[in-house]
Amino acid sequence: MDSAPQPTESEIHIREFLSANPALDKELGEVKLMTGRYTNEEWAAQIAETQRKVLAEVRDRREDGGRGWKYETPSAASTELSKTVDHTLLKLDAKEAQIDALCAEARVENFKSVCVRLPWVQKCVNNLKGTDVVVACVVGFHEGTQDTYEKLREARAAVAAGAAELDLVLNYSILTKHNPRPSASLSSRDSATDSITAANTAVNARPRAGTAATEGPYSVAAASTVSEEDEGEITDYSAIYKELASIRALCPNPTVIKLILETSQLTDRQILAAAHLAASANLDFIKTSTGFNGPGATLPHVQLMVTAAEYLSTKTRSNGGSPVRGGGRKMEVKASGGVRSWEDARKMLEAGATRLGTSSGVWIMQEGRKAVEAEATGKRPGMATRLYTDNSLADGDGY
Fold first, then answer.
1. Percentage of the residues of the chain whose pLDDT score is greater than 90
2. 268-319 pLDDT per residue, tens
3. What letter does residue 138 receive in the DSSP assignment?
4. Buried b / exposed e across 82-110, counting CB within 10 Å, b at 16+?
């Protein structure tokens, strides 16, 4: 008889916090799961149409003479640039002094947000009083395979603690369940922005008591073989939608919800399926990566996601005037993982991303100021040393 799956350290971390803080959990009452909107067959038909139209648009834009992706970007070191940055620290073993430093840097640089795990939300809210820097909290981080009710409790606790934004990890294993490893696609990997280290996976996906994970993306089975999709079996799109819609209903606007797709683990068609479901659940952003599992943001993936966001939330001739995401607000794209320099940031923003998840925000702004100075004086920027709390080049933080 198979034993029950062992929870990962990330899951234990959240369960222990909620148990110790009933005012953010049990005292708020029960959480409820939304009902389905369509059958899996109906979702599959809708998603297939999105895939067909968006992939055709991407091919056209990439052809010689195509319009490509060149969006207006904030100038280096500007306030507009700083307000694209989610200043991030997601190490499981982050210390109070590191969180204080993260918030201090965010105050000085006037970033859009600090992005942290649930136990640090209230401290960050207190640290950032008197500023317009908001607090973002990850949910279901970083595996995404947590039970939906656990994700709902975590999301509700984050908002109750003062988080204005939620970065929610998609249960992408549902999309990849029937497929072999992702094959070569339009969105080929960009090794220059590979943000994973062995330490990230070891530290953040390690099951309790050193036992092997029995399910999810870090299990032995998942790492070795993935069966072909059974003939006639359709992906359980309804399960994904119900989870996303339930969290949206529990945490309505103005709470901003960003869905982390973990694009390095998905094919282009799976990325588009996730984007379609995010738009249907009225989420605000689709986001590339956790930074803890495979390559981070790549230009091809950002370009694909931007094209999908435009198609799914804008009335145009190409989509027949019937956007999936209503309300007149466009779903946006966050690039995260491997964004470590002003040049990285510029490329992602030029491709259409409007938010950047990075632990290198201070470095990016510093490089931007040096670029502005060099342009004004005609001198080439000199070499500099990373000083601040940026540890994206060290182990333990994929951003």
1. 71
2. 999 999 999 999 999 999 999 999 999 899 999 999 999 999 999 877 666 6
3. E
4. bbbbbbbbbbbebeeebbeebbebbbebe
Q: How far apart are CA 126 and CA 86, in angstroms?
A: 17
> H or E stretch including 276?
helix 268-280
The 8-class DSSP code of residue 167 comes to E
Instruction: Give dist(CA 194, CA 297) in Å, integer.
Output: 8
Q: What pLDDT sits at residue 193?
A: 36
Binning the chain into helix, strand and coil, the percentages to the nearest 5 are 45, 10, 45
Distance CA 21, CA 19 (A): 6
Integer Cα distance of 292 and 127 in angstroms = 27
292/315 Cα distance (integer angstroms): 36
Q: Quick one: which H or E segment has residue 210? A: none
Q: What does the alpha-carbon distance between residue 2 and residue 237 come to, in Å, rounded to a whole number? A: 27
Residue 139 to residue 156: CA distance in whole angstroms: 10
C-beta of residue 139 within 8 angstroms of C-beta of residue 251 = no
Q: How many whole angstroms separate alpha carbon 367 and alpha carbon 341?
A: 7
- pLDDT at site 107: 98
Q: How far apart are CA 29 and CA 366, in angstroms?
A: 46
| 3-state SS class at 356 | strand
pLDDT of residue 377: 84
The pair of three-digit structure tokens given for residue 357, joined into one six-digit string: 């998840």
Compute the distance between CA of residue 186 and CA of residue 54 in angstroms, rounded to an integer: 12
Distances from the Cα of 336 to the Cα of 136, 218, 379, angstroms: 14, 21, 31
Render 85-114 in DSSP notation, one character per residue.
Answer: EEEE---TT--HHHHHHHHHHHHHHT-SEE
Q: Mention every residue, 6+ apart, whose C-beta is less than 8 A from residue 325.
A: 279, 280, 282, 312, 313, 331
Q: So which residues are the catalytic ones?
A: 167, 287, 334
Q: What is the pTM of this model?
A: 0.84
Q: Please give the sequence-ordered ranges of beta strands (E in DSSP) within the chain, or none if there are none.
A: 85-88, 113-116, 134-139, 165-169, 256-260, 285-287, 332-336, 355-358
Q: Which two tokens stand for residue 97?
A: 């002094």
- Residue segments in the chain with a per-residue pLDDT below the cut of 70: 1-4, 179-232, 316-322, 326-328, 380-398
Q: Could you check whether the bond before residue 295 is cis, i.e. omega within 30 degrees of 0? A: no
Tokens in use for 168? 């929610």
